[in-house]
Amino acid sequence: MTAATSDERAAVPVTIRDVARASGVHISTVSRTFSAPHLVNPETRVRVLACAEDLGYRPNRAARALITGRTHNIGLIIADIANPFFPPLIKAAESQARHRDYHVFVADTNEDPTAEEELVHALAKQVDGVLLCSPRMSNSLIEQLSREVPLVVVNRQVTGLPCVLMDVGQGARAAIEHLIGLGHHRIALLGGPRSSWTNREMRRAAATAARAGGAELTMLGPNAPTETGGSAVAEQVRRSGVSAVLAYNDLMAIGLIEGLDALGVRVPQEVSVVGVDDIALSRLTRPKLTTVATPTAAAGRTAVDMLLQQDIESPRGARGLGAGTALGVRRTTAQVMLQTDLVIRDSTGPGPRARPARPPAASRGPDPHCPAGPGTPTTATGDAVAS
Amino acid sequence: MTAATSDERAAVPVTIRDVARASGVHISTVSRTFSAPHLVNPETRVRVLACAEDLGYRPNRAARALITGRTHNIGLIIADIANPFFPPLIKAAESQARHRDYHVFVADTNEDPTAEEELVHALAKQVDGVLLCSPRMSNSLIEQLSREVPLVVVNRQVTGLPCVLMDVGQGARAAIEHLIGLGHHRIALLGGPRSSWTNREMRRAAATAARAGGAELTMLGPNAPTETGGSAVAEQVRRSGVSAVLAYNDLMAIGLIEGLDALGVRVPQEVSVVGVDDIALSRLTRPKLTTVATPTAAAGRTAVDMLLQQDIESPRGARGLGAGTALGVRRTTAQVMLQTDLVIRDSTGPGPRARPARPPAASRGPDPHCPAGPGTPTTATGDAVAS
DNA sequence: GGTGATCCTGCAAAGGTTTGCAGTGAAGTA
DNA sequence: TACTTCACTGCAAACCTTTGCAGGATCACC
Question: What is the mean pLDDT of chain B?
Fold first, then answer.
């Protein structure tokens, strides 16, 4: 770390060989100093480390990858980075990966299934595994791709593959029960993309909960999972005569509130709205959004853990393993379901039955129907529950 | 592409050698088929390509990187992925990179300068260049790191290095002029982080514009560039007696509006608020935020272009180049300034002087002071202007 | 038929690291 | 002393690709 070297260190790439020369040992000893320290004499080790530090040596991961077959990289394939649902997931995944000395490639598919497939192929040779977040392609294609590179799927259930799921079914149930408890008996479900697993789960759970609570549930959709998708159906919602709406996600819920506002329909006085995801934004709109919080960060962390876990066993690229059904180790296919939590804020209020008993124009100030208070939502724990 | 092979293709990694064997040529011919097609006989080429396709061959980028010295990867170092300012930039950069057959590593520093430095080191050997977005470390450290790996800096001016800047000075000027035009003569500038280049530019430009317009400008801050940072100074803003505020960014502006609201101060009736960035969120809050739109996506694209441009010349890791001032090619150090645009929405209204002349309670509906109408903001063009 | 040019292909080294194997010397045991 | 064990280190092959060089075939031209 002398001043002289630090100035020019990077003009010439310094390799394991330079360190070997400087410390008077063979390159293999230098290599072992980094990858298997217990095999080298402590004295030698400190000397080598000192020289390495002095020269500014950093192992070349490409060369290492070439021989070990492990890149220490993972791929993260995202439908749309700009969708506020994903950044917390990306952030958590990147952080978790880095703690385990992995780097992450991020790729955006623009919600295009074709791009998803191409990206898996393109990344396959360059990563030890791929996280597929809310994929839009078919299950069978996912299964096929998983033979090329270890995969963990987030927000989608694929049998035989490790998946990280959020229990939106439970969340939808809680939301419907919340609405029914407020006196709503005509409720709409604002559906998302048809190919979305989350969408199917929500529909099923919401229908069951509505039936159990004696409420009528209207299905609207499919719709684009965006703000525009939400505002576009405002008119339809008004005409349908429902007094409450559960939206596929927060963006749609916010769009819907916008759209209703433009039609002169007030939220929550005339229509209650519940979203899903609890994106940061949902705390900042007015009214603040009642929503089903999904543990996105926990999902990112968990997915990385699962990926790295299944990676450990076989050193990739093991040649000569007989194809077909080798009776050796089989990849773990555990599926993890993360809990969701209903966060009650200001976009839901008493329904038609309860309305007469309510003081008029109470849209400001602490809402009486909010148990925890708007500022202290019940946060999602993200505890993992194997299913 | 037969069914038989596609099933097991990835169990055994297929290399250039397998393709060579299958097509009856030497591996170098296969290599050339991909990296220099014009050097191989068309007939041979189609045969090789067919075999490659059939076997599912994909070039191993690690091996290629090892010999060419170019990884075809770039690094993207971000202060905070979850900050809504960044995702559009990441998305654009990733897209642009991919179009040029590059993949991008994304890393999050959590606003920690130490993490920034470590990440540059960690990524250096694995990428052809790094994009440093809104770095928090010192200029001198950035310069030093740039000797290790080609760097492009976004949102920060470092002499001698290629930079992509947004003209927030112009934006701040436009915002102040807009406010003065509305009749505000006591304005506050809600400052951001002290180490931020943007922050300094804004202060300077706002001060000049205020002086020119005969308005009094109060500097508040530094503050955290977050919603909380904004809401925390609401009380201070009220006490200061200003009628308008220009905030460091949209998040702070939104936080401030929240905080003022909690104090019973209405926006824009009593205080006008202008943000900077035009994050998606700013269209969704109520009131919709008047803000200085920064061309984030264009910045991401431009930064990638500049990085790749300076990469082309020298094939990295050229050994034996004399250190010191080689009189050969010098890295391009062009600095690009992108234009910003003031987008007028609903969080700004007439100031004290103009107020009497205004119809009361006109907070809903199309605002008379909004030239383009709330739905059709003047969008940032992002035209590049070399400086 | 000889000369030269052109086009294509093969050969082999190189790039930085890991790792099985073998070798060295010292310490421990009989 | 002889033998084994042990800790450490060196040797060299291997990973997959690129690329300068040279050889071979073909063709045109004189």
Answer: 84
